[in-house]
Amino acid sequence: MFDYETLKMIWWVLVGVLLIGFALTDGFDLGAAMLMPYVGRSDTERRVVINTIAPHWDGNQVWLITAGGALFAAWPLVYAAAFSGLYWALLLVLFALFVRPVGFDYRSKLENTRWRQSWDWGLFVGGVVPSLVFGVAFGNLLLGVPFQFDETLRSSYHGNFWQLLSPFGLLAGVVSLSMLGLHGGSWLMMRTEGAIARRSRRAAQWLSLLFLLSFIGAGAWLLLGGIQGLAITSAFDAGAALNPLAKTVTASNHGWLANYQQHPLTVIAPLLGIFGGLLALLGASAGQGRTAFLGSSLAIVGALCTAGFALFPFVMPSSLDPASSLTVWDAVSSHKTLMIMLIAASIFVPLILCYTLWCYAKMWGKVTTAHIDRNPHGLY
Amino acid sequence: MISESVVDLSRLQFAMTALYHFLFVPLTLGMTFLLAIMESVYVMTGKPIYKDMTQFWGKLFGINFALGVTTGLTMEFQFGTNWAYYSHYVGDIFGAPLAIEGMMAFFLESTFIGLFFFGWDRLTRVQHLSVTWLVAIGSNLSALWILIANGWMQNPVGAEFNFTTMRMELTSFSDLLFNPVAQVKFVHTVASGYVTGAIFVLAISSWYLLKGRDIAFARRSFAIASAFGLASILSVIVLGDESGYEIGDVQKTKLAAIEAEWDTEPAPAAFTLFGLPNQAEQRTDYAVKIPYVMGIIATRSVDKQVTGIKDLVREHEGRIRNGMTAYDLLGQLRGGDKSEQTLDAFNGVKKDLGYGLLLKKYTDKVVDANEQQIKQAALDSIPQVASIFWTFRVMVLSGMLMLLLFACAFWASARKNETRKRWLLKWAVFSLPLPWIATQTGWWVAEHGRQPWSIGEVLPVHLSASTLSAADVIGSIVALVGFYTVLLIIEMYLMIKFARLGPSSLHTGRYHFEQGAQGNAADARQPALA
């Protein structure tokens, strides 16, 4: 139905959609958990925060799990090289995420204060750590990851966890942390009232400023020369079967800007990120939860697209051996698998969107402290 | 080449995390259906006690489900972290069912589970019932896709090696989907999950009946669990995956190991009830055999043979020699010699390439393997017989005990005299660990019996691991064991606490600990519980 090259492009878009879906939905779960110690001062207030996301966080987390599965199916080499290379970073994310399912469910099962406070800290860590590490990981993709392939396509990683925490990596971590924190803040503005909504508003204001600063700062870092991007220089058949080692790659793409220069329309992505941040700031300042949430959502879409557009066609550049870099063209599954997966995705993704929206609609409305106090046993 | 210790450590980590995950999965598979059945009765009859049953058993289910989600996260990413070469080599096939599982099953299950717990006041009865059914369908669909993936590891159909991409690629999606090994595994595994759910409800209900509290609640739960359990255990046994053991070399080898059948016996082969398998000497000491039984169970016939281990080793040795040729030709093809002649020769022996790769454990170049290394590789192509022999027997014994229990419980429940049979109630309570013993040993048989392959006849385990250091893997094992253990202790604590409290934990005012006068020691603890 589609030729190989088109399918490869479609899968680049689809992986992007899954990652954006994860950041848009589970992003506010992570953000709300991150803000919980600040916006929820009493047990009841923290339960309000938790119960705004209680019915949804599990479904939202599936965007991440499905993105993992889709990476495995569509870009097996990326799945293999990234997760084995960034071993401890991924484990750190997983351990932080482990706390969430049990934290949400077990916290309210006992009334003991220390019990609940321990879970609160666990949930806070479960919000902060993944948000930070995802950003650090993206920052390191732009910097290049020290990995290479041998002739049997076995990948090996030649770095360690601490090297990921370079200044630019950490800056990207701050972008992601403030962006998802902002998303959580604007979500809580919409779904709560009174003191919690007021504190969420304040958090959203500060976080939108931090996001704008760090996002523009990261852009300036790329522009002003901190980072050398890659470019494919060999004559390259985008429709060919996978063989990542067959291409030649040079470090001649200053600041990953080539795509933005060749296709000026793509500048929409960083502009959208900035516009979203500003809109969120405006919404938060005006106390308009919906506007702020729209702003933080646009900021997420803009920021992720900015990174994706800059890297294209690379998805995992290698700083050690540029030819080993994985691209949209040569990290992929066979034509047949991509086609089957596309059919599955075009059936299920619209269905998922429909029933997810139905669930949100059914559970919509402000969660209040009075409602929480009336339901000590039925809610989290 | 990756070191032996990294491979062994990675295997240990995978086995631990997978077995740990499967402490929670079968209960989820069974409980979601039991909850859907209970709620269906509620919607049809309108009796609030069935709503209480759905909510109380749902509470216990939720405690279990949380850890199922937690431990499941590891599984989705672990192929990439610890089995990177595997992920590259077979991702084209193996990744697809995992991704479809996410899109088709996980989303369904996880999106609606929130409404199951929090939607009681927001949905109509029929809407909520539909939500519960969708959760049950979602969890079972996820079992379907993961077992299609696992079935392919046991019997890799519908795929072919591609020398340019240096990996296996999908040739037929329908072959992957309708892999007979995957089909029987699915039925066997989900039915074992239903049994787990049924024993769970049966044992805890029996305990309430023994204590003489919440009788009406417990008897109804007991009745549903015994009927559902009897149907499920019959499916597990009758549709047991023994019937899939004729298909594919790995399954044949596994069957020979299960039965510790060293020499091919004339059909129908005898079943070894007891014995001490001795792998070094290739014989079973102190064997007690029942004639004909194994041949009939395994081949469903009286005239088909079950191939013995010694014959399988001989067969594998031949394929290893073929595999050396295949590996040599692959080197020529990758080196640039793409002549018709080389390609034809390679295609002729391609199916044995995996056997050639078995030699990688002994010599990196494969083609320079000496006679002794070839013989050793052939011997090592058989999994460890004793542990498979015994775990299989423990699994079958647990299954038989549960069949007997469900039959008695169903009979008693039908005659409405279960409350008078205290022996039956006690037996049910003490049977609580049986489904977990059966499912854990069952997976041991299935996966340990697949060794030395990660993908049968295609990719050996020792090539599949990531290029990590032993320290990395030891670190993650220690961290996982520590974290999981703490979580398990917390989970057990909550589960026992709420199971003891029973339906009183719903605070409806209708149950034992809320009827003031009948209180006992446990009453004092009750206010501390939410």
Automatic annotation (TrEMBL), chain A:
Protein name: Cytochrome d ubiquinol oxidase subunit II
Transmembrane residue ranges: 12-40, 85-103, 123-149, 161-182, 203-224, 265-284, 291-316, 336-358
Subcellular location: Cell membrane
Gene Ontology MF term list: electron transfer activity; metal ion binding; oxidoreductase activity, acting on diphenols and related substances as donors, oxygen as acceptor
UniProt keywords, alphabetically: Cell membrane, Electron transport, Heme, Iron, Membrane, Metal-binding, Transmembrane, Transmembrane helix, Transport
Family indicated by similarity: Belongs to the cytochrome ubiquinol oxidase subunit 2 family.
GO biological process: aerobic electron transport chain
Superkingdom, natural source: Bacteria
Keyword Calcium in record: no
GO cellular component terms attached to this protein's record: cytochrome complex; plasma membrane
Membrane topology: Multi-pass membrane protein
From TrEMBL, chain B:
GO cellular component annotations of the record: cytochrome complex; plasma membrane
Membrane topology according to the record: Multi-pass membrane protein
Record protein name field: Cytochrome d terminal oxidase subunit 1
Species whose genome carries this gene: Pseudomonas graminis
Family: Belongs to the cytochrome ubiquinol oxidase subunit 1 family.
Keyword Protein biosynthesis belongs to the record: no
Transmembrane segments: 20-44, 56-75, 95-119, 131-153, 186-210, 222-240, 388-412, 424-446, 466-490
InterPro entries according to UniProt: Cyt-d_ubiquinol_oxidase_su_1
One of the GO BP terms on file: aerobic electron transport chain
Domain of life (superkingdom): Bacteria
Compartments where located: Cell inner membrane
GO molecular-function terms, A-Z: electron transfer activity; heme binding; metal ion binding; oxidoreductase activity, acting on diphenols and related substances as donors, oxygen as acceptor
Keywords: Cell inner membrane, Cell membrane, Electron transport, Heme, Iron, Membrane, Metal-binding, Transmembrane, Transmembrane helix, Transport
